[in-house]
């Protein structure tokens, strides 16, 4: 049996630990989870990201990393390429999408142009590989506009775009054609919520259907989160999700442009500001600075890096924008690549203490 690094967990925390490790993408799926009388052993990826592993250990303090022997898992489900090997020309199999974004019971996939004639059978194969999916959507354009929406084409299953999505104990109703939502930000939703302290006031300037705001409110008994969005459909889902997750009185939905809302209602109120609008967040740094309390606070700033704009360049641009608004970056607490969004392009996050 092969040896692998693993997480050793007391059995009483086993179910929670397995769910969290899977959510964070730490589990080596080629190996079987092992158990003895008192502990279970979760096999890790060969090189798990250090910050994600640390996040797991913060939430499960009784865990420890060690080496253990694991049997290899028996393959239960063929890959998409295996399902389609007799239905597509062999030269097109390498062009198949590696994975679908799963939002509730909807799978969202990007179909390369050369596979467009086969999108129907690809959608059916994705459903076959993911038995819980009712619908498979193909992206039919880029995210765009002030509401950050994209168009979709139904390629398999029930023709719908609305669903209910669960992550880290929260549940969100969303229509992916009417309100922006990305399951790839699940780790960030959880990370930010874990950083918020009791008694804080948080301004989520681009809240969407509420994943940052609601997860924060679920984690903390004494917190006030102002959740702002310019999209009326997103705010309608946000209000529904506040009720669904029972965080009324802690999350305050606000419809409007973040600049105007901050100027009129949120100036100087926030201990922490969330800025998840990577396309144009730099244009709203003045609003973030205005929302932060006079004595200072923390800003979580999301942006894009490319081959020509590095993470260090992004830090410099953000710090300069803060200084133009009479504030100063005291320190960058955390900076990392969040996800790849295109070849040579990444979404990044900067956690900055502002004074």
Brief rundown of the structure:
This protein is of the alpha/beta class. It has helices at 14-23, 50-59, 80-84, 119-129, 186-195, 211-219, 232-244, 258-266, 285-291, 311-324; strands at 3-10, 34-35, 39-43, 64-69, 101-103, 106-109, 135-139, 152-157, 162-167, 170-175, 201-204, 224-229, 251-255, 272-275, 297-305, 329-342, 345-354.
Account of the protein in words:
The structure is a single chain. The chain has a seven-stranded mixed beta sheet with strand order 13-12-11-14-15-17-16, sandwiched between helices. It has a four-stranded antiparallel beta sheet with strand order 2-3-1-4, with helices on one face. It has about 350 residues and is an alpha/beta fold. The chain has ten helices and 17 strands. The chain folds into three domains: about 5-70, 2-Layer Sandwich (Alpha-Beta Plaits); about 80-160, GMP Synthetase, Chain A, domain 3 (2-Layer Sandwich), CATH 3.30.300; about 180-355, Rossmann fold, CATH 3.40.50.150. It is about 30% helix and about 30% strand. Strand 16 (about 330-340) and strand 17 form a beta hairpin. The model has no long low-confidence stretch (mean pLDDT about 95). The N and C termini lie far apart (about 55 Å).
